[in-house]
Amino acid sequence: MAKVIMVQGTMSNAGKSLVVAGLCRIFKQDGYRVAPFKSQNMALNSFITKEGLEMGRAQVMQAEAAGMEPMVCMNPILLKPTTDKGSQVIVNGEVLGNMPAKEYFKYKTKLIPDIVKAFQKLEEYADVIVIEGAGSPAEINLKENDIVNMGIAKLVDAPVLLVGDIDRGGVFAQLLGTIMLLEENEKARIKGLIVNKFRGDKTILDPGITMLEERGGIPVTGVLPYMHVKLDDEDSLSERLTSKGRGAVNVAVIRLPRISNFTDFSAFERIDGVKVTYVTRPEELADADIVILPGSKNTIGDLKWLRESGMEASIYRFAQEKPVMGICGGYQMLGNLISDPENVEEGGSIRGLGLLGVETILKAQKTTLQVRGTFGELEGFFSCLSGLAVEGYEIHMGDTKASDGQKSLTRIREIRQREEGSAQTAAAGDFRMDGAICGNVCGSYVHGIFDQGDVAYRVAKALADKKGVTLRAPEESDYRAYKESQYDLLAAEMRKHLDVDAVYAMLRDAAI
Questions:
Q1: Paired strand residues for 46
Q2: CB 89 within 8 A of CB 2
């Protein structure tokens, strides 16, 4: 059996995901086989494994930090909100169906066997499993039949580190209030407190730490600084979604109401001089050098929002002079028509932006696969990508067909890994054409299209050249190599400010 430790938080976006990633990297550096685990994740940022199964991006990021291939058993339940009151429920990487929140709340305990089975499978691959909670364990309206915080801690007998966010204020109230709202047996599981995102001189904080330990009866295991590491996150509260400002090159991503997979654009953020902003108003496009329409969990609804907000007209005008790109749902929106005969979203048909000669029919069967290929011989602005390698994954509920004469963006094939007994076999499908390009407008179904090699830098440099400005090439030419350096930086910072010996003691004394 693997040793386990769990990271819970006082609220959403307290930094649980980053702390888990840092612990995974530390354990990996110390020679252990380590894996992340989150029983239930709610996010619109997802990933497709080599088996064609869907899981949350946070556990993919943590798996990378652990040096392990992402596996769906790291995240057996994924909830993807479709409305304010309901979500698509994905179990073991496959769609179970859509459920209103009340219905899922009653149903979720039926998924405990799936959680247990996933955890037991993960134990076959890991010496240490670092578990992430969700939200807060003190959300008293959700504690009944909990399967993601103290419920899972009890299920696998895990000691808990509780993380509070000092950057948002009230960290002592966060931590003490959470402890006070727990049952005694739950409180006993918390073996250490972490004050996260601290800025300034720690000695000023020391009196508060002393009082926190006295009143809470639990030691403070670390005071982590506000760490300037650039790693994928998936929370709707992500600071990258609200960050503003200007750079030498400005990438404007339309912040759709149901935006998904905004991690597609993280590769731009490592390039000095490039600023990525998420925009909701037409006037915010004034300084943009490229506009990107991201993925969406409700393409028709978000297309209507584009129309009502005035963004559609602004994007159309922008495309007459500067490049526009769409990924997944954004690609569908750039076409001529989206039809929904099976009522996958809202039913009926809706006119697209008409910037690409494609039409989409939404279908209930979800496409989930990894792909690999190359960009075609392109003209116009995107000629900077001609012949470059493409690697990523597709997640969409629809088929898109190009009209006669419409040029494709990439040539790709499916890469699927299937299990056959204890052996794994890679199967590659035939090459097919993906996406479309017309002048300075293009679209693709491939998530992660900017992550391979120097694709993001090629685009950024072409934008800089067009403006007559100079960009410095990243020290790491490959985005994946850059992420490796960021995981090492995260681990180094955590080792400085976290009592790692105390964490190892918690692992040794894991039985509660």
A1: 56
A2: no
Would you please indicate which residues are annotated as catalytic (active-site) residues?
A: 328, 447
Strands 77-81 and 40-42: parallel
Secondary element (H or E) of residue 350: strand 348-351
Instruction: Note the pLDDT tens digit of each residue in 130-141.
Output: 999 999 999 888
Instruction: Determine contact, residues 390/435, Cβ cutoff 8 Å.
Output: no
β-bridge pairing 410-420 and 358-375: antiparallel
Q: Determine the distance from the C-alpha atom of residue 184 to the mean position of all C-alpha atoms in its chain, rounded to a whole number.
A: 34
Contact predicate 78/55, CB 8 Å: yes
Amino acid, single-letter form, for residue 422: S
Chain centre distance of CA 345: 23
Confidence of residue 420 (pLDDT cuts 50, 70, 90): very low
- For 13-37, the pLDDT digits (tens) are 899 999 999 999 999 999 999 999 9
Is the Cβ–Cβ distance between 352 and 335 less than 8 Å?
yes
Q: Across all residues in the chain, what is the average pLDDT?
A: 92
Q: Which residues pair with 425 in a beta bridge?
A: 418
What whole-number distance in Å separates Cα of residue 236 and Cα of residue 87? Answer: 15
Q: Is the pLDDT of residue 444 over 90?
A: yes
Q: With bands split at pLDDT 50, 70 and 90, how would you rate the model's confidence at 238?
A: low
Confidence (pTM): 0.89
Query: What is the number of other CB atoms lying within 10 angstroms of the CB of residue 319?
Result: 18
Cross-strand bridge partners of residue 32 = none
Tokens standing for residue 181:
């709202």
Show contacts of 142-146: CB within 8 Å, 24+ apart: 145/105, 145/108, 145/109
Classify the C-alpha dihedral 300-44-396-326 as positive or negative. positive
Report helix, strand or coil for 202.
Answer: helix
- Two tokens, residue 111: 């998924």
**296 vs 291: CA distance, rounded Å:** 16
Residue 412 and residue 449 in contact, taking contact as beta carbons nearer than 8 Å: no
Residue 174 has pLDDT above 80, yes or no: yes
Q: Is 433 helix (H, G, I), strand (E, B) or coil?
A: strand
Helix (H) / strand (E) element for 260: namely: strand 259-260
In the chain the domains, ranked by start, together with CATH numbers, are 3-231+484-507 (3.40.50.300), 249-470 (3.40.50.880)
DSSP secondary structure, 277-334, as one string: EEE-SGGGGTT-SEEEE-EESSHHHHHHHHHHHTHHHHHHHHHTTS-EEEETHHHHHH
Instruction: Quick: pLDDT tens for 188-202.
Output: 999 999 999 999 888
DSSP state of 147: S
Amino acid identity of residue 7, one-letter, is: V
User: What is each CA distance from 127 to 103, 168, 488, in whole angstroms?
Assistant: 37, 35, 20
Mean pLDDT of 375-404: 94
